[in-house]
What we know:
Layout: H1 17-20, H2 44-49, H3 69-78, H4 81-112, H5 117-128, H6 132-137, H7 140-144, E1 148-149, E2 152-153, H8 164-199, H9 204-209, H10 213-228, H11 235-253, H12 255-266, H13 270-279, H14 281-294, H15 319-331, H16 337-354, H17 360-378
Antiparallel strand pairs: 1-2
Amino acid sequence: MEEMEGIESIRLSDITPTKLAKIPDGIKIFDIETQKYYEKINGTFQEMVEEEPNSEDDESDKPIIPETAAELDALVASGNKLAEVNTFMKLRSIYNELIGQKNTINTKINFMFDGTPEQVDLIQARVSEVKKEALQKATFPELKQFFVFDGDTVKLNFDTLLDEKEKVEAHREFLLYLKEVDDIVKEIDGHLKEIDALSEHFSEDVKTKSKDMYQWDRYIYDLFKEKALDLNLTDAERDRIQRIIQVKDDAISLDPIYNSVKAEINVGRRRSMINAFQTRFKDTIKKAEQYAARNNFHVYFQLFDGIEDKFGYGEFKNLFAYLFARYIKFNANRLTKVDNAFIAQVTQNLIMLKKNQLPTDIRHKFVERIKEIEDLLIH
């Protein structure tokens, strides 16, 4: 069986020395192992499961972005937990976006520069005292002075791999980049401090529950279940909440995936599916990732690579990843926002299973269903 190797992703090692000196400022460099803790629960799930705004929807549950602690205190005091949770997730979404921007800047700096963070700070301080125009006109000896510490010159990581002309422009670009991002990083840090201060004003249960992914996810699920019992809900409101609840239930039972595989087995496609798993695995994974990217979310297959090792099906490594990707690939033209939310929720559950973070009862149901789906092909 084919292992999950060669799945295309953007890695630092993909950028050759020749390309390095000309990295666009907006390049996205991803390290799949640094998956954001809140990516699944910071509002993305809710946004995917929501349809277009409806005038009949309950406005009181929609997130606000508080500008002051007093506004947040008033929201918490109102007792509307769904509104508080939505607001919390929206703030964390903004927070993680800011962290992502800062990490991208630091990744580029660290990739280009061979020195220490303290030396970067010193170079940045030196650059802040020089006008941009002076850097653009500086000679190579003048540029190199920014990199001298205690008589020693610290090089850029790719220094020896460039010709003299490229080397001059690489040093110039690095200094210009530091000058450009200095104010941006300061602004990001200011916003992060503001959000940290606001976050202290949420209720204790929200702050406590949010520290554990599954506990938080369950907390939100229970809030929706409770809300669904509200007799004052309109039919449209109740339907919206029931859809959210159903998605979370389906992500444990995996019924959509099971039914999809079963339907193909029933029409005699078992052998062709096994052959496709052995020969078209990577292409199927890639198509599923592309679908998710087009719809503004991610399916991190690498984070549940070899999930079968967790329950004794190691001989069929990544069979479920393939069937999951296949479900996405072959249904791409008819998947809805609700389906996307289901895909995102299954992804989270698989990651938590791989990390041993699923509670025992949920883990048992989830694993048994994965086995049932795989058994359709292997028995």
